[in-house]
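hey so i finally got around to running both of the ones u sent me last week. sorry it took forever, my laptop kept dying halfway thru and i had to restart like 3 times lol. anyway pasting them below in the order u listed, first the sequence line then the structure token line for each. didnt double check formatting much so if smth looks off just lmk and ill redo it

first one:
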Amino acid sequence: MEALSISPRNEAVINSDMYYNIVHGMCVSNMAYRIAKQLNFSDEQCYELAEAGVLHDIGKLRLSGYLYGRDENTLGVEEMKYIRMHSKFSYDILVKNNYSEFILQSVLHHHENYDGSGYPSNLKENNIPIGARILRVCDVFAALISDRPYRSAFDVETAVELMIDEVKNFDMQVFLAFMHIINSEDSKSIYDI
């Protein structure tokens, strides 16, 4: 059997994506912890949200062979359906590793939008677990302030403006806590990783 080899181009893409996912997870984790603190969660829940933030996209590992080395930056409808399964893949990985139900539900539903337009279950408003509502805000912010293959990072002010334009996607109480954190004096230490 012939050994699988990775071209230098694909290796660079894998390393770049892996770096992005690590930094992204750390940013989401830091933000989720601070928002939970702002909302007066227990210390245990704050730490669990920090864990969930680091782990929320671990299911993308199952997609790596499918995504890396693509020559196109756009995805078709069927490809997007598969990509949208990453939160379920993350959930499945974490179930096997005995994470708490709070972490599991937060990770599974971190792409649900407050208005019901998200995935994987099209949950709406308070039917979305509170941990997932927090991760949603953090995940969007962290993605916006990061360079991606198809666009440069937005500055913090622009990222916040874009989020305000789409505020229907977020729990307002969580979003206001996020705004408090972003406007605090030490906010840069939370997301500038």
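and the second one:
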Amino acid sequence: MMFGLVAAALSALTASACLVQVRVACPNDTPATGVRVWLETVGSVYTDDLGIATFTVSSFGTYSVCVDTTTLPAGATLSPNCQKVKVVDLAPPVVVFVLGGNICSTPPAPGPCWLTGGGTIGKTKGVGDFSFGGVVYPGCSPNAADGGNWNVVDHASGLHFQGQQIIVDSCSGVSTTSPKVNVNIIDFHGTGILGGIGGNPDATIAVSFVGRAIDNHESGGGSDMLYLSVSDGSSTVLKVGNSADDPAIISTGNLQIHTTGCNK
């Protein structure tokens, strides 16, 4: 099934493990399918139809991520083929390998959109105020892990939000160049859980949320924007940014809006 690998991996997130997601694709958003990706001490996974390889790690630290260039599609080039990724909390960034070569000459057709992202917002005493990471609506599919998995960690309060059932409401805005797509704003909502209640990392409550991500520039630090409002039904229990019209500017990392697979 097209999104089976994404769905299975995304749904595996637990309180003691987190996801490291790797995407191999062109600047025009054309993905590389069936590429072998290695994560240090974990093993290897092949990219799916969206160019995504997803790993579950059980401990924080710095990992080496490498792409087996012998498995790249014909006409694709990649240099360098290894990167480092720091997993410091339950919202690690998405690692992106950017391809070159003939495979990147024809962009995907315009269509609806989906989101990958990861990074931090703000900083207090050397630590980001918020960390975020995940995938929303991979390939525009509501069936892939119930629409994805979006994570935000509020370091001041020790709260960890997991958006587990996600619906995209709209894709709008202007065209962007990396990846080359026809929109730069995605609005979404859904339900999930909030952990860390009362300082207990195992205590969770059911929540609902609304979010907006804006992909303004590549890379996104200092330019891309994120808004998230999480409610327990009676009050707002976690908030990033002031409103959908006044979102927070991310400090590090990236937000990328994609259209690959949306017309299938």
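quick thing i noticed on the 2nd:
The longest helix spans residues 4-10.
anyway thats it, ttyl
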